[in-house]
Amino acid sequence: MPIRNLDKIFAPQSVAVIGASKRPSSVGNTVLQNLVSGGFAGAIYAVNSKYKEVSGVACFSRVGEIPEPVDLAVVCTPAITVPEVVRQCGEAGIRGVVILSAGFREASQEGAKLEAEVRAAAKQFDGLRIVGPNCLGIMAPHHSLNASFASDSPHKGRVAFISQSGALCTAVLDWAIQEKVGFSYFVSVGNMLDVGIADLIDYFATDDKTESIILYMESISKGREFMSAARAFARDKPIIAYKAGRFAESAKAAASHTGAMAGVDSVYEAAMARAGIVRVFDVDDLFDCAELLARQKTPSGPRLAIITNAGGPGVMATDALLDRHGVLAELSDTTIARLNEKLPATWSHGNPVDVIGDAPPERFSSAAEIVLADNAVDGVLVVLSPQAMTDPTGAAQAVIKVARLSHKPLIAAWMGGDKVREGIELLNDAGIPTYSSPEKAIRAFMHLVSYARNRETLYETPREVPIEFSLDRAKLHSMFDTVFREGQDILSETASKTLLEAYEIPVTKTTLARSAKDAVECAARLGYPVALKIFSPDITHKTDVGGVELNLANADSVAEAFHRILHRAKQHRPNARIEGVSVQHMLIAPNGRELIVGAKRDPVFGTVLMVGAGGTNAELFRDLALELPPLSEHLARRMLQSLQAWPLLEGYRGRPGVNLERLIEVLMRLSYLVADYPEIIELDVNPLLVTPEDAIALDARIVLDRQAVLHPVRPYSHLAIRPYPDEFTKLAKLKDGTSVVLRPIKPEDEPMWHALVASCSSESLHLRFRYMFKATTHAMATRFCFIDYDREIAMVAETQENGERRLIGVGRLVADADHREAEYAILVSDPWQGIGLGSALTDLCLDICGRWGVRSVVAEMAQQNHRMVHMFELRGFEIDRSHAQDAVVARKTLTVQQASSDKGSDGK
User: Fold this and answer.
1) Rounded Cα distance, 344 and 695, in Å
2) Which of 294, 320, 428, 868 lies 20 to 30 Å from 221, alpha-carbon distance?
3) Rounded-to-integer distance, Cα 582 and Cα 532, Å
4) Closest Cα to residue 2, out of 787, 790, 814, 816?
5) Pick from 83, 28, 18, 24: nearest CA to 49
C-alpha cells in the first residue's frame, strides 16, 4: 500500500519552487535550474514576489496565486519565513513539501522554536507531508525530478540512497556520476520534522524500480517504526547501512553491569541485525556496496570462485574472502576437466583459477564461462593485474560477453592505472561492478552474502519450544505492581529474585541478616558453605566496596565476614544506607560456567536483552551479545553462539558442556518478563550459574522507572518489536458444533500452513490467491507465517483431528504503515466451508481493525466467489464489480474505536 501522500513528493505532476531566484548560485536559482534542465515533464512554477518570471518559468507572488493544482513545493526561503510558507502551502492544497532552508534546531534554540512552528502549521492540514528542513533535497531519476541544490543528477538505477548527511550526499553523487552508478531515488532527509527514514523505507518497498537501499544514518528517533519498515523491506530486498557516531557515550550513568556494558552503538548493532540490515563500518564500503547492488543480483551463497592472471592477487583475494568468513568454492571434477581443456597445463588446477600471466582475453572468458556453470559456485571474481603481455581492454570485453549470459554475480578487480582505465570504463558501462583491488571486491561481495544470511534468519521457522506458565501473568503483574509502588527504584536482591522465580527462572534462596548473630543462624539454616553480600539499596556493584565474602564454612567465619563487609562498605560509601547482609548457600559446580544475563532500556529501541561472560570480570572482557525481545529459541541460541565463550558452553577439552536447552529457556523466560513489565529499565542476573544440569541465578538486581510505575504506559510500548498478540485469541463454535481456537499465526505454524493449503482445492486456491501454483514453498510459507504484528496479522482457526492439531482456515489483514487502510483476504479449507468459519474469522479481523484504528477495509476476490461476496454484503461492504477481468472489490468504512484499552492493545 502507498505511504500517505509521498507520491506527491517523489512522483509529482507539478512543482513550485518557493524562493526561486535570478541570483546565480543561490539555492532558489539552482533548484529551479535543476528542475528545468533535468527534464521534469510536469508543470514548474516559481514563487517570489520580486519577479514575474525566472529563467523562462512563470513566477507568482504567493503559492496561492498559482492557477493550477500543485503537488510538490520546494521551499528555499529563510528559516524565519518557513512557518508561514508551509501554512500557505496547506491552504493552497499542496500536500508535498521539501524544505531546503537551514537555521532550525540544528542551529540554535531559536531555530528549534521555529521548527516547532513549522510542525504546528503543517498539522492544520491533513496529509501534508514534509521532507527536511535543512536538507539537500530529493531526486527521483526515473521521473526526471531533481528537486535539490546538488550540482548534478545521478543516472537511473535500482538503488535508493537515504542520507542524514547532506555533505555525504554530494560526495556520493560525484562518485556515482564518475562510476556511472544509478539510483532510483536520492534523498537527503535533513532534520526529519515529518518524513523519516522508516517512511522512506516503506515507500521504496512499494516501488518496482527500487531493489535495494543504501542508508547513511546518524540517529533514529522512532525505533519501533524503523524496525517494522526495515524488517518488511529486508525480507525481499537488501538494506546496507552505515551508522555514524559509533562511540557516543550514554546520557546516564548505568546502575547495573548490563547498563554499563550495553552501549548506544551496540544496541544499534543488535537492532540492525534483527532487522536484517547489513551494517558496514567504512564509508568506502558504502560506495563499494552501492556499486554491486546497482549492477548485480544478490549472491545466493558465500561460495566464490576467483579467476586471476597472477598468483599474488589471487592469494590476496583468498585471504580477504576467508578473513570475512566467505567460502572458497570447491570446483567440481567436471569443471576441472573443462578447464584443463581450455587452459595451459601450468594453470593452478583449483580455485583460485590462475590463468597465467600471458593469458589472452579468450582465456579469461573461457575460464569465467566454465566456472559460472558450476553449481557449487555462487559468484565469480575476475582479477586482472596488467603485465607485459596483458590486454586489459580486450579482457574486459571478453568478460562482459560472458557476464551477460549468466544469472550469477560476476565482479571484477582491474588493478593498475592508465593501462586498465579503458577496461574499467567498459566494465562500468556494461554494469559489471569493478574495483581497484581484490580486497574491495571481496568486501562488497561478502556484505551481500551477509544480507543473504540475515534474510535466512528472518525467514527461518523456529522449532516450537513450549514454555508453559503455571501462573496467571496478569494477576502476577497486579501483585508486583503493589511491590513496585511501595518499594525503591532499585529492588533488593530478594525482591528481584522473587520476580525471577515467579517466571520460573531458578534462583538461589537469599535471606537478610541484620546482625552477625542473624547471619550465623541463616547460614546454619541454609547449610554451609555460604556467601555473604552487602545489602544496601544504594550500592549497586557489591565487589567494588568489598561487599562480598565467599565460601564461608563455619559460624566463626560468617560472623567475622559480617563485620568485615559492613566495615569496608562504610569506608567506601559512608553515606549509603546499609541494612545488613544477604546470606545464601554456595553452590559447588566444578563444571559450571558463570554468565551475565540482563536487560536495559534504550531510549530509541526500548528494552534490549543481553547475555555475556559473567562474574566480576564481566565489564572487563565485554564478551557479550545483545538482542531485542521478543526472543525465540533461534534468537537465544544465536546470541549464545556469537559469544567467545560459546565453545566453553558447548564443552571443551574434556569438560562437559552446560545444559544449553535450559539456558535458552531461561533467556526466553527473561524475554517474557521484561516484555510484561515496562516498569523495568535495567535488570541484572550476575552471575547466572550454568551447569550441565541447570541454570541458576545467584544474584539479581532490578532497576525501575518511577514514572512508568506511577503512570502506566500502553502494553509493549517499551519494545521495538511487537510480541505475539495473545489478547486476540478466542474460542469459537461453528455451526456443526466444532470448537475451534482463533489465534494469530506463529512462525512455527509453517508445517500446519502447508497442510492447510494442501487441503484446499485448485478452485479454492485460485479464488484466494487469484493465480495457480503447483505447490507451496518454504519462501511462501515464511512470507505468510512470519509477520510483523504491528502492521499485519493473520488469524488462524485451529482444531484437533485424531489427536493432531490442524489449521482449517486463515483470515489475513495487511495494514498500511499509517493504519488507515487494511487489505483483507481469507482462505478456508474445503471440508470446513459453509459452516460459519469464514464469518467467524472475518468478524474477528474486523474487530482487530477497530482496535487498530483502521478507517477502511478492502478485499478483492473473483466474481464467481459468490459465498464471499454475500458474506461481505451482509457486513455492510460496498461491492464494486466495475474492475477489469473477473475481480470484485469489497470496501467498508469503519467507525474508529476510541476505547483506551483497545488503543493500547496494539502496543503503538
Assistant:
1) 61
2) 294
3) 6
4) 816
5) 18
Please say whether the beta carbons of 142 and 159 come within 8 A: no
CATH match for 473-582 among 3.80.10.10, 3.40.50.150, 3.30.1490.20, 3.90.1150.10 = 3.30.1490.20
Give the H or E element holding residue 370. Answer: helix 361-372
Q: How far apart are CA 480 and CA 463, in angstroms?
A: 32
pTM for the full model? 0.84
**Grid cell locating 683:** 535488570
Q: Give the pairing of strands 606-613 and 624-627.
A: antiparallel
Q: What is the pLDDT of residue 736?
A: 93
Contact 192, 130 (CB under 8 A): no
Of 283-292, 400-409, 714-723, 824-833, least confident by mean pLDDT is 283-292
3-state secondary structure 1-50: CCCCCCHHHHCCCEEEEECCCCCCCCHHHHHHHHHHHCCCCCEEEEECCC
pLDDT band (50, 70, 90) for residue 147? very high
Enter the DSSP assignment of 543: G
Low-confidence winner among 518-522, 649-653, 687-691 (lowest mean pLDDT):
649-653
C-alpha span between 739 and 718 (Å, rounded) = 36
Q: Which CATH class is domain 298-459?
A: alpha beta
Going 55 to 60 to 63 to 65, the CA torsion angle's sign is negative
pLDDT, mean over the chain: 89
Which residues does residue 733 pair with via DSSP β-bridges, in sequence order?
739
Q: What one-character DSSP code corresponds to residue 719? A: B
Q: Which three cell numbers stand for residue 15?
A: 512543482
**Residue in this structure with the C-alpha cell 489478547, named with its chain if needed:** 727
Tell me, what DSSP letter sits at residue 544?
G
CA proximity to 581, closest of 550, 554, 617, 618: 550
**Positive/negative CA dihedral, 173, 177, 180, 182:** positive
User: Which part of the chain is CATH 3.40.630.30?
Assistant: 726-905
